[in-house]
Amino acid sequence: MKNVGIVSYGAYIPKIRIKTEDIAKAWGKDPETISKGLGIIEKSVPTLDQDVATISVEAARAALKRCRINPQDIGAIYVGSESHPYAVKPTGTIVAEAIGATPIIKVADYEFACKAGTAAIQTCMALVKSKMIKYGIAIGSDTSQAAPGDALEYAASAGGAAFIIGGDNIIAKINETCSFTTDTPDFWRREGRKYPAHGGRFTGGPAYFRHIISNAKNLMEKTGTKPEDYNYAIFHQPNGKFPLRVAKMLGFIPEQVKQGLLCPYVGNTYSGATMIGLSSVLDVAKPGERILLASYGSGAGSDAFDITVTDLISELPRNNAPLISDFLNNKEYIDYAVYAKYRDLLYYD
Amino acid sequence: MRDVAVIGIGLTKFGELWDKSFRNLIAEAGSKAILDSGISGKEIDALYVGSMSAGRFIGQEHVGALVADSSGFAHMHIPSIRVESADASGGLAFRQGYFSVASGMNDIVVIGGVEKMTDVIGAEATDTLATSLDQEWEAFFGSTLAGTYAMIATKHMHDYGTTREQLAQVAVKNHANGALNPYAQFKRPISLENVLKAPMEAYPLTMMDCSPVSDGAAALVLCAAEKAKKYTDKPIKIIGSGQASDTLPLHGRKNICIFESTVYAAKMAYKQAGIKPKDVDVVEVHDSYTIGEILAIEDLGFVKKGEGGKAVENKITTFDGEIPVNPSGGLKAKGHPLGATGVAQIAEIVMQLRGEADKRQIKNAKIGLAHNVGGAGATCLVHILEAM
Lengths: 349, 388
Hints:
The complex is a heterodimer. The relative contact order of chain A is 0.19. Chain A is an alpha/beta fold. Chain A has two domains: 5-171 and 321-342, 3-Layer(aba) Sandwich (Peroxisomal Thiolase, Chain A, domain 1); 174-313, Thiolase/Chalcone synthase (Peroxisomal Thiolase, Chain A, domain 1), CATH 3.40.47. Chain A has helices spanning 20-26, 31-38, 52-65, 91-98, 116-129, 204-223, 242-250, 254-258, 263-266, 273-284, 324-329, 336-342, and strands at residues 5-12, 16-19, 42-45, 74-80, 106-110, 135-143, 158-166, 172-184, 187-188, 197-198, 232-235, 290-294, 299-309, 332-333. Chain A is globular and about 55 Å long. In chain A, helix 3 packs parallel to helix 4 and helix 6 crosses helix 7. In chain A, the strands form three sheets. In chain A, strands 5-4-6-7-1-8-13-12-11 form a nine-stranded mixed β-sheet, with helices on both faces. Chain A has a three-stranded mixed β-sheet with strand order 3-2-14. A two-stranded antiparallel ribbon of chain A has the order 9-10. Chain B is an alpha/beta fold. Chain B has two domains: 4-121 and 214-228, Peroxisomal Thiolase, Chain A, domain 1 (3-Layer(aba) Sandwich); 129-210 and 238-387, Thiolase/Chalcone synthase (Peroxisomal Thiolase, Chain A, domain 1), CATH 3.40.47. In chain B, helix 4 packs across helix 14 (338-354) and helix 7 (164-178) crosses helix 11. Chain B starts with a strand and ends with a strand. The model of chain B has no long low-confidence stretch (mean pLDDT 97). At the A-B interface, loops of A face loops of B.
């Protein structure tokens, strides 16, 4: 069977940050308890002129800067998000146009809570394997919503990553992927509603943990691997605690999780979360290293990937675009009042 | 009136039981109780079930028929009665079932208590708890059940010098006990600091002063005492049953630090049993909030009014104290599935009197008391049981 994998990658995280303690103070909560409880120090915030379209374009451009691919060879773009700027009209067409990949291209937007981006990777893999396309771009990107005062407000942030999937010039081979999906209503946003609702602790045990653990186990059974075979493990990160706990439950150690765990510094970028984690790992990965990734999307499902880094990663000019560490260091803080303005909390009819 | 005994008990685990529905829970507890008693289904004359608010929590009324049906008794067409008195519904179901056997109308009845609280979000659960208050005079103006108990706690601190730490100590003790109970929602001991530093619910009560939102069910089989030995070597006789009411809102009471419903229900039960508080070996009280346990031990006569906080501090109510209170972990640690609570309390007393409470067994327990309160004390049920 034809090899398939990642040809290049790029990410984008807005530089505006708000500290967990500033949000906690605005709501009269104890900052230390909240910050420690969630394992989140600060989160990224989109400004008024940033949305899923701009973040996706930035990430796709960054991916193209690292490789020598003619945009016209890109046969598909799928953008996964739960904050597409339009309810009807795709984000993907904006990205395709912006990077010069139109008009002979397959485009669609995806939504599966926080795992729409990894679902897009799977679609691109299938199209490449079946030779329907040469290259495809899978993007996970969000400017996620949180009702003022909701626990989600400490986590919901902005960012995204793009992966060029292809059959040649692969820097990281995707050996296997599998999914685990059920109808589990742990978190949702109805049509026309501004903010999502969630089932509190129900989003943990029967949702996040059951789906990731079942799926990661299925993946390792398929590939005949064990946790210690992996150099890196990336799990969906709705907060700083869950990915470490799920790692422990599966038999991984914190050292394997650390490089791909960005939530404490940028918050939960939803569809971008595991994909930014994978970008951070690819920023430092060496040939031969092995990566396990398990995303999670409420509603609910998990996509898992077994990935091996190839020799070609040494030739990829990774510094042609900002590394995740560059995004982490390039930041500017705002207080809750400015945050309220940026996140449209001050709207009135 | 003839004597009545408990011959079977059944409990589900209490907690956030995402994979179990209302009907699963009551069917599980009921079948466990029937198996424990050794009766056959055909011998059951009636079912009594306590549920506070199935209508609001799961959108289901007509609970009596549902319970009979989901327990597999629909084809027997036996009477099935749902009773309600807020979170004292379980205790009330027990009392009604007890009356029906004592009167001679029934020989064997099954008592159930059940609540499925986690199908709604936290705010809805809080609103539903507040329906046990006076809607027009209290809840409508924003008072929650926690807020109401908080007012009582503040007054108790003011009038009797009860301290914040003494309140917290109730939760610490009950978590220590709950850690020994396989059915408990919380099996982790906690520190005084955990309680004091938890998020504030309503001053002076933090989240850790409050019982949790829980799913769960409990069931008991009652039988005329003269026939009880046919089924079990260890029947546990009901020797006292008391019930009393009080004004629904707090503002109608002479002293909000006294639950007169408890005082009167206890008087009734002690009189029937012919005992005094000092004769009781083990107690389960209604600690939906930590201040509730302090009021209970005072109003039940174990300590003088105002000395409840000090009694807790001096460890009189611990496992090996003078009067062990809530060896099950209480509502705080065992969990508080509203309708199930009163039935589960009696199940714990039965386990203690049978000598089957394992690691939490109170030595030489002969007489046990269960105290079940509805809302902020407008209903109270007190039951006293004794090993036969």
